């Protein structure tokens, strides 16, 4: 496991480089080259200690030894010139193996600042080569900063998803393994660790003979089109114990020299893109396509050995897109290769991409004898689906694996699968999947009791609406000062996200703009669909409730209302993910022709009206329930006989967190550990929310002097987001919790003040009014303790407090029912739309 000190050193290396090398990928390359440089010198020193001789830095290359590079008295520019010369000449060094020559191939120093290099090398100098797994863990952490390789359409696969896929495949020591788009070799290393673990009695891998270890390493192969990725893969594998890793620069889509090679197990998260930059796929694929994910899945299927199997991450286009190539691929998979589909939640690749993905499970032998396919759905993967992806306690992956293993075992033993009870999915006959020729791989489509096939014709948007671009934004205040004509920008649309009656905009055009600029005025009922910029993949959709001028970043869809109702089309377009219609998911942009080509089911106008009316009826219920949630606050009727106490005199302690030298820094946080360290996202207006968590070690916990919760404490957020509150009672599963610097602990004397009463008081309108009167800070609102001491709290007798709490909790039970009502009616809307789509 990665320790905090190693993590700090890697972060420090990046912090030193960032001013001169801002690109994370380039930072990783510079750190990689420097580490291998240092490790070669460490191995030379180790050889000398054991009675041998140096092999890396000898003869003409002796002057480049690490000790000479770091010796005192060497000037800054001398160090810089020596290091730059060394890494440039290292590929020519006859004393280093081919692996290291490949790593240094095309290496160079991208900056000429001696102080930056000196600080950087000083940090690298602390690392040492010790043959341990620790170095591999450290390098994997370094690689994690890469995240997204957007130009190649690749997104780094989360480690727990890689490990899950490997466990499902269960590779064996005698099998050949391949990742044809290996990136940094994450799948290959996970497979290697899995095989070692499954062949362990006392020490890792001790059940493997030397020959078996040699053959195992020789059987693990990876390809990647990028020489930089190949370099990183080689280092990663070397640091995990591969003395001669087999990763090569190879374009799987255009090169043919490895076409006749097969593998027993293939694991991959291939890039999602249209090949570009001179990449022209060859013609040996069974499916001719322009999308790389189609070609890669075809390649993987065709390169399985007779008993081969594969696990592949794919985007949703593979699952249900209607273009010929996608349908042909699905037909090929269903008939010859596919045994299961695992749907992953959108957000698995956050923060790099919100793309929705699934995992295809192929088994060439089982697929030939099976007449069904298993569909399993992951709702939670053990991490929050927000940008931070913090660990939390909901995880469907273990149960998914149990159920998938049971299904696959039934296929292997040729037992009937109909009796298997899947709690996370369903089993569908291949015959049913093939019924309409679409071979749709969305499991929800096949659930019983839902109308499946749309009886309505599918029409292109451009056939029932004008699809055009908005106006280029006028430049200069002269066109906006005193304006009264709405000019809608993507930020206006993003502020509401979805609306079937959008009115208003931040900017208004004046008469001068209207008179001088040739701007198109779009009528009420126009549907706005973001087509360029960051908001494209956020899938904002609105129907304009009034006529307005519109920014060119928005596509304007004006329906022919003799054929289609704007609100009906709007609801259908809300189910279209922009990522599924763009040719390049790495770049958020859509052409008008791509939007116009979207195909939708189009019932008669009267049916459209009925569907819109049905949805609007559901939406009214949702809006009413939301109004209850938005407006409800606990009310405490204050009796004149009650004691009213200032916070300064009230029967509670106010405790802040430890803000001294021991306050945790970023390298002290881990996704799991001894003590939960709260952030403001964990404390909401109605209590705790534990979907994105950070932990500190027991050592760090013990070093902090204050700010630790005890059962019965009440929290209040006092910086940034003011007034959120939570009660730390026995329902909270964490035994060790500390607050951050943006909140306070209130510890009541329970002989005079109930914790639950204090919690509800903080939620009340009475306290909200006081809070807003004493808040300070314009840029960042704050509630310092000195201000809070002025606030007042009513203190009725304990029995009265208990009665008030009971009444409020009864009210909140009714309020909570509104949340369930919203969920139910949102599902009704989705069910209505699914019926139209034939899902």
SSE map:
Elements: H1 4-17, H2 24-49, H3 66-69, H4 76-89, H5 98-104, H6 114-124, H7 133-144, E1 148-149, E2 154-155, H8 159-169, E3 177-179, H9 186-197, H10 210-218, E4 220-224, H11 227-239, E5 246-249, E6 263-268, H12 292-302, E7 304-315, H13 316-320, H14 324-336, E8 338-343, E9 357-363, H15 364-369, E10 372-377, E11 381-383, E12 391-395, H16 397-412, E13 425-429, H17 430-433, E14 458-460, H18 461-464, E15 465-469, E16 485-488, H19 490-496, E17 498-502, E18 507-509, H20 511-516, E19 527-530, E20 541-544, E21 549-550, E22 554-559, H21 566-573, H22 592-596, E23 599-601, H23 605-631, E24 643-646, E25 652-656, E26 675-677, E27 683-684, E28 687-688, E29 695-696, H24 698-703, E30 714-719, E31 721-727, E32 737-738, E33 743-748, H25 755-763, H26 765-774, H27 785-788, E34 792-795, H28 798-837
Parallel strand pairs: 3-4, 3-6, 4-5, 6-7, 8-10, 16-21, 17-20, 26-32
Antiparallel strand pairs: 1-2, 7-9, 8-9, 10-13, 11-12, 14-23, 15-22, 16-18, 19-20, 19-22, 24-34, 25-33, 26-29, 27-28, 30-31, 30-33
